[in-house]
Amino acid sequence: MSSSSSSPPAAAPPPEEPRPVRFGILGCASIARKLARAMLLAPGAVVAAVGSRSEGKARGFAEETGLLRQGGAAPRLHGSYEALLDDPSVDAVYLPLPTSLHVRWATAAAARGKHVLLEKPAALCAADLDAILAACEAAGVQFMDATMWMHHPRTAKMRELVADKATTGDVRVINSLFSFRADEEFLHNDIRVKPDLDALGALGDVGWYCIRAILWAVDYELPKTVIALRNPVRNQAGVLLACGATLYWADGKIAIFNCSFLTNLTMDMTIVGTNGTLHVTDFVVPYEEKSAPFSMASKSSFAELHIGWDPLPSKHVVPTDLPQEALMVQEFSRLVQNIRDAGGKPEGKWPAITRKTQVVMDAMKTSIDNEFSPVDVSS
């Protein structure tokens, strides 16, 4: 007679980690070194391939950035952009090529089913961007531009305070400024001053961040009118080295921004509401990688006898375990995994934000080209 004993139920297997998103880096621009490091740091991402115009250049980039020493397989090295896009083991491409090449290679990537993380400025004009976004939509791939500060936890914390009516009230004025002092080598030879490579110059490179900061502050409500500031600075080829604009909304909000390759490194964003003022002085790249500060003044008033302020602004410091560019890669990877592994749809928020940034940049450029006349954005 056999005796049977009931065995305890088997423990459920631990949930599987999602497969990492396999990135191909398309082009070896200097900014790509920062993203290569971000991909080494970001959970859920791995660099599967590097493509350049020669295999030797791709190898040099991979060696210099430590990609050949990453855990797991070394990235494949491709001697052409086409070869990287044809690589079946690449899920997504990071594309840091000059802006004039974005339409060609971003649409080609999308057509091959690769998700697209595109360096800013996204395009030379909205029509070009629309071609890229249409290609991504048709292929069902995720699009995101590489505006890194959007992904820092400080940005989410600032959003909470700006959105809080008691703390900030109604936003009425925004000022944004991003500049750095370029050296002579940059001003003569960098791709960002070449009309055939990056014709938008300072407007596309640093102005993009100023426009994004303004739109972020008003929850992406497009302005009614954009008027460029007079006396922009151009190089001999006609590329903008310094410029600015004023933005007007139908309800009376205004914003002013300045961007330049000719003045000291400055990254200011000020948001002034009816009840409060938020200041951040390193909004594009925080002073330090592990934490980022900002200040918030709310219900400010003069101290008695007008000898000071009361209350004083509060100082906030937001820590982060990962640098903002790695957080961006992590978020993009999460969106790709949702599409690739769970049958999800691309997240539409990111293309919409990119397009609004592009539309305002186009309006600013049109205003400059038309002798600083007002340009109606809402139409």
Task: Describe the secondary-structure layout.
Elements: E1 21-26, H1 30-41, E2 45-51, H2 55-64, E3 76-78, H3 81-85, E4 92-95, H4 102-111, E5 115-118, H5 126-139, E6 143-145, H6 153-163, E7 171-181, H7 184-189, H8 201-217, E8 225-228, E9 233-234, E10 240-248, E11 254-260, E12 262-273, E13 276-280, E14 291-298, E15 301-302, E16 309-310, E17 314-319, H9 324-342, H10 349-369, E18 375-376
Parallel strand pairs: 1-2, 1-4, 2-3, 4-5, 5-6, 7-11
Antiparallel strand pairs: 7-12, 8-10, 8-18, 9-10, 10-11, 12-13, 13-14, 14-17, 15-16
Tell me the name of the CATH class of the largest domain. Answer: Alpha Beta
Structural class: alpha/beta
Order of helices and strands: EHEHEHEHEHEHEHHEEEEEEEEEEHHE
Q: How much β-strand is present in the residues?
A: 25-35%
Largest sheet: 10 strands, mixed
- Low-pLDDT sequence parts: none
What is Rg? 23 Å
- CATH fold group of the largest domain: Dihydrodipicolinate Reductase, domain 2
Q: What percent of residues adopt helix (DSSP H or I)? A: 25-40%
Textual characterization of the structure:
By secondary structure, the chain is an alpha/beta fold. The chain has two domains: 21-149 and 338-346, Rossmann fold, CATH 3.40.50; 152-337 and 351-376, 2-Layer Sandwich (Dihydrodipicolinate Reductase, domain 2). The protein has ten helices and 18 strands. Strands 7, 8, 9, 10, 11, 12, 13, 14, 17 and 18 form a ten-stranded mixed sheet that branches. Strands 3-2-1-4-5-6 form a six-stranded parallel sheet, with helices on both faces. A two-stranded antiparallel ribbon has the order 15-16. The model has no long low-confidence stretch (mean pLDDT 95).
